[in-house]
Amino acid sequence: MEKPVQTWPAELAERYRAKGYWRGETFGAVLRERARLHPERIAVVGGGQRWSYGELDARADAIARGLLDLGLVPGDRVIVHLPNIPEFVSVIFGLFRAGLLPLYALPAHRITEIAHFAGTGGARAYVTVDRYDNFDYRGLAAELREREPGVEHVVVVGDAGETGFGTLAALEAAGRDSATQPVEPASSDVAFLQISGGSTGLSKLIPRTHDAYIYTLRESDRICGLTEDTVFMAALPMAHNFPMSSPGFLGALYVGARVVLSASPSPEAAFPLIEREGVNMVSLVPPLLLVWLEASKSTPHKLHTLRTIQVGGAKLTPEIARRVRPTLGVTLQQVFGMAEGLVNYTRLDDPEDIIVNTQGRPISPDDEVLIVDDQGNPVPEGEPGNLLTRGPYTILGYYNNPSANARSFTEDGYYRTGDIVKRLPGGYLVVQGRANDHINRAGEKISAEEIEDHLVAHPQVFDAAVVSVPDEYLGERSCAFIVPKGEKPRAVALKQWIRSRGLAEFKVPDQIVFVDAFSSTAALKISRKELRAQLRAQLDEQNNKDTQA
Ligand code: OOB
After folding, report:
1. For labelling alongside 211, which of 48, 312, 476, 519 has CA 20 to 30 A away?
2. pLDDT surpassing 90 at residue 274
3. Is 436 within 8 Å of 418 (Cβ atoms)?
């Protein structure tokens, strides 16, 4: 039987230590050190609160003790389902310090996804917020307790109401008076579980160690020029790997900089904060960049403190990339990364041509990048192929998931990213597309298979195929082809069906097309993958006709 976590072979681990990549640091100890060096400096600003490093450190301590006093033991998994509020930071550092593993869920996730994480992650606790963005997370918590009784504890940030759940405030207060002494985990231990975009079916869990993740923070800080004077804004959901660690809010805290949390990435929420806090760095997905570029032309808010805008998560077109410097007077940095590991950056002093036309090059000299054809043979330099990678911070396997590991990793430990890229001289990568069927909707990854499974569960659906369609604003949008069973359902009813199945709103198909049947060859002889390709081609043809007409 495979172990739940695949680790690096001893000789590689030895090499990464010898080269000074892995330095034996842990998150809990890093925060302790920053708080000792400059206790008064502001670490986190958001939700009407300003916490110094000293205060954050003290809160993390209290939360660690409070959690252990609930009966949780080091190694236990705890789902963290929080929006961009300062408690996100105190809770995860409390967990790190107690040796408990946060499992990060996005605020958009709903009961079906959370129950899946709880089940596959074997989570014992769930930390959430009372209400946010018109959604009652306590209701979700109650349903979760029923569906996954292994989740013994619920901790609510804010008001627990009549639920009987504990609150973070109470847990922290109890922790402050507790004599429990948390034991710092080993730096080679898994620090947390990140979730995968889920190209085949349901999301998989990604185990990241302190050593490997902190290495990416240190190097990202250097590459992206972070100093103590950096004021980094987390505008995207901070549970996502990009604003978390590339260099993200964790990279900012690692150098003793300031993190400003925006409740939403909209210009209405973010611009006043940029002005008030003197934000100089932010990370965005391409559609948001477009919105920011437009809004910046007429905003009354002063944005002159901004120095770097990072863009990643989905492909940025050169046309839009080219507008960034003239419009906002900032340096653009392209970021091509994945929660499984590998992160590429354009460098701040790269020529404009590289910044505009490439997705950067890897962080580490020891990031091994292979570009191969479908048979696994290397393609000639400059030709597109499948990107495989391994290195000092790319995982060697998903958490507790042997069948996904057999598909996604080669025998010699390379991760099959599913991305089609080409490599330019100097190691710069240009993303060309995806080999597998997921939809990258404004940076949110949607598995076609997952949505199809939910659609065919509808009584009036005989068959369904979900494909990506190019979209001017979102980059890609989702289109569901439906073969009805009996009376044709209404498109709105199908969308409502997906919501009622307890899925994140971004997974609701943007477009629904009814067809009488999938071509008979398709239904019987070809794979889902080929069927989706055929349908995508049909749509392209249709769209071309429409634009010509
Ligand atoms: C980031 O992480 P994930 O895990 O949500 O998604 C990874 C996938 C990549 O495999 C690629 O398909 C796509 O997202 N992607 C890009 C891209 N950045 C990510 N595709 C084209 N151009 C880019 N710049 O999305 C992520 C993690 C860390 C840093 C940045 C992004």
Report:
1. 312
2. yes
3. yes
